[in-house]
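G., before I forget:
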Amino acid sequence: MTERLYGLGMRDATLGYGRGGPVIEDLSLTIPSRRFTALLGPNGCGKSTILHGLAGLHTPQCGEVVLDGKSIRALGTKALARRVGLLAQTASAPDGLTVGELVRQGRYPHRPVFGAWSGADEDAVESALRRTSMTGYRDRPVDSLSGGQRQRAWIAMTLAQQSDILLLDEPTTYLDLAHQIDVLGLMRRLVDQEGATVVAVLHDLVQAARYADHLVLIRGGRIVAQGAPISVLTPENVKAVFGVDVVILSDPDSAAPICLPRCNGAATSNPQA
Amino acid sequence: MIRVFLVLLALLAVFFVLALALGDQRLPFSVVLGALLGAGETPGHVQTIVTGLRLPRATLAILVGAALGVAGAICQAVLRNPLAEPGLLGINAGAALAAMMIIVQAGTVPESLLPLATFAGAVTMIAVIFGFAWRGGTTSLRIILIGVGLSAMAGAGASFIATFGEIALVQRAMVWLAGSLQDSRWIKVQTLLIWASPVFLMIWMAARELDLIALGDTVARGRGQQVDLQRVLMMLACAVLAGASVAAAGPIAFVGLAAPHMARALAGRRHVALIPAAALIGALIVLVADLAARRAMPPLQLPVGVVTALLGAPFFGYLLWKKRYD
């Protein structure tokens, strides 16, 4: 790797937890700036680990995570959080915490140690609530909301952080179809209108192909294929990653590829085996 | 919100005056006020009762309660566990072991060292727990489990010493272990104030660190918080607050657990309001409990720790019952 890496990426990174051995090994990955990237792969393939690594939550055992050509280790944790925001999977708020109080937490990296709450902080919170249609729920306890509203509250917190790079771990899981479309539409707008870089772990291949610009297919901690949906979502790649036989159709609206499992398709149920 | 604080302050003031007026010798309000202001016509023995005995005791009750309330609020935020309290981190067990060694083996060590030794015991215990729990970082659960384990060991150590100790001395140690404000002196008030007030101020100013860490490690790290560093600093603050209060009055049960819960019900979840509310409620609990402890069976004085549990538990239950549909 001699070329400089702009935006966010990994260089030969090995990441793992304790004694379990590495989850991903020698992985190099470049996240395209100002694009919506979807990470796809079976459960346990290392998608979340990659996301946490990119957010600086795990320090790689070897290799490095790079932001604009420099190792993120050179950045302080707050400075990194101003550039990269992570919405982890299944975060739960303490009982009684209100939406407004939760969203405020997104301002943490912008405030000096003993600094007061500023007008810019308030504006960022208002804007995050508005963009997620949560303004009316500001004083409601998070635990009193429906799953979709709760997820939007957490997304609002991540937006209040105003990082130009957003990493989202399964933002649509447990949401009904309308809320899934809401969340994905919001991600799309952040990329198109505000120039954000979004990386999301998704499970629905159809939605990923429709909303994301760039797909990364992962299996067993390795990248199997990456690129535009139309070039990545081939029956061969899907078979290699998920072990499922599919036929690829074309979306009549957008010409995005649609993966449809074949009847009697799942010949090998466990691709890891 | 302001109303909550005004009511708490008013209640505290009322019980403070009551604590000065009530006792074996009941004093009218005007006499108490006269003694406080140092009016010339106050008889000498009344002056002694008010400013020499009851005033330091009431003041110490307020400070001990406030320190325990804040220490509990820190514990519950940092360990993200509604059952967390300073005792869970071995503060009481560490202090108890130290106290047993000093009191029961009296003669070898001067008893004036008791506060210092118990403070050291409490802080050492937390340090040891952190040492065992550290594995390139810590988790709340590991701290709690190791805390419970080491507390049991320290408790066993204290019981072991008690078994071989002289009966009268062991009994004295047991009274100390229940927590008592009987031996309140100005020097204790000063010491507690010196240790606790800077820590209290720091914690209050850093209240937002507690807000964030209470959301969980992953969320906090994603916002750029140095979670392990904050956890060590906060637990250290908790150890100093609780350790200093144990050194002053022995381990007073229940306040560290209940005061933050009551504060949360009244002042909400944001620590900038929760911390002072927990301090006020903790102060109120200990002040009222000590008044009850002194007046329940005169001339016998119960240990205040016995009363905090007796008074606090029903109120705590009422609070949970009232909020059961929330």
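The mean pLDDT of chain B is 86. Chain B touches chain A through 22 residues (CB under 8 Å).

More on Monday.
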